[in-house]
Design goal:
- This protein is of the alpha+beta class.
- The chain has two domains: 141 residues, 3-Layer(aba) Sandwich (Chemotaxis protein chec), CATH 3.40.1550.10; 70 residues, Surface presentation of antigens (SPOA).
- The chain is built from six helices and eleven strands.
- Strands 1, 2, 3, 4, 5, 6 and 7 form a seven-stranded antiparallel beta sheet that branches.
- α1 packs across α3.
- The two termini are 28 Å apart.
Length: 247
């Protein structure tokens, strides 16, 4: 395992902020400021969501948002929305700049506590700034270790199986997984969602007659044609998607 130098950490924190900013809910466009470890520069009122991650690297990622966003989520016309879920795509994108990682559900903390603990472990902070308003959010990243070579043990594990080693995947054969079919996707603002009514048509990002995606636990594994089987919809698989092509 290796630990990044201070300069490398600042650069990665900035890259994490660049990845997170496009997925963070905000009332106006945000730009990425300079990374820092000075807590006094980034004192904002609101709430923080901090999560640990592991995989190609281990560490913590945090996002602080202003009280305005916290209150907007709590008083949404669709009911109270969970802050952790609202910022989770941004958290995952920020951590993913280090490689394939798994991000835990996270916890909500006071901003000062979350940022102070992150900096104490050698982390860096990046402000997200709105023109004419100032700092509206903060992204923090701390890396405790990186796995040299990424999945370096994969070849060894494959060789072991080739020599007649234990069939580890047999243990998973009876595990149930959620399988979903997806015709297409689109992005809508809250205003557009609230304006929906019976008869409204939503345009998806898929051409008519195009293949449907088959996902297992949210991960794309295949594509196929939509068919009807005894009055129920089904999918005839036409393509198995390799790991390098998965979204």
């Amino acid at each position: 395992m290796t630990i990044a130098t201070n300069g490398a950490l600042l650069a990665r924190a900035e890259a994490a902020a660049q990845a997170a900013v496009v997925l963070l809910p905000a009332s106006s466009p945000l730009s990425v400021g300079a990374p820092t470890q000075d807590l006094d520069e980034l004192a904002i009122a609101g709430q923080a969501v901090r999560a640990r991650f592991a995989g190609a690297a281990q560490g913590e990622v945090a996002i602080v948002v202003t009280q305005d966003l916290v209150e907007a989520l709590a008083n949404s016309p669709m009911g109270s929305l969970d802050l952790s879920q609202a910022v989770r795509p941004a958290l995952e994108a920020a951590a993913a700049v280090l490689g394939p990682v798994v991000v835990d559900p996270g916890e909500i903390l006071e901003p000062a506590t979350a940022l102070a603990e992150l900096v104490a472990t050698g982390g860096a902070l990046v402000p997200l700034i709105a023109d004419g308003v100032g700092v509206q959010a903060v992204v923090g990243l701390a890396v405790s270790a990186e796995i040299a070579g990424g999945d370096g043990g994969a070849e060894e594990r494959r060789s072991e199986r080739g020599r007649g080693g234990p069939p580890a995947f047999d243990l998973l054969h009876d595990v149930e997984m959620e399988v979903t079919a997806e015709l297409g996707r689109t992005r809508m603002s809250v205003r557009e969602l609230l304006s929906l009514a019976p008869g409204a048509v939503i345009e998806l990002d898929r051409a008519a007659g195009g293949p449907a995606d088959l996902l297992v636990n949210g991960r794309l594994i295949a594509r196929g044609e939509v068919v009807v089987i005894d009055e129920n919809f089904g999918i005839r698989i036409t393509e198995i998607v390799g790991p390098s092509d998965r979204a």
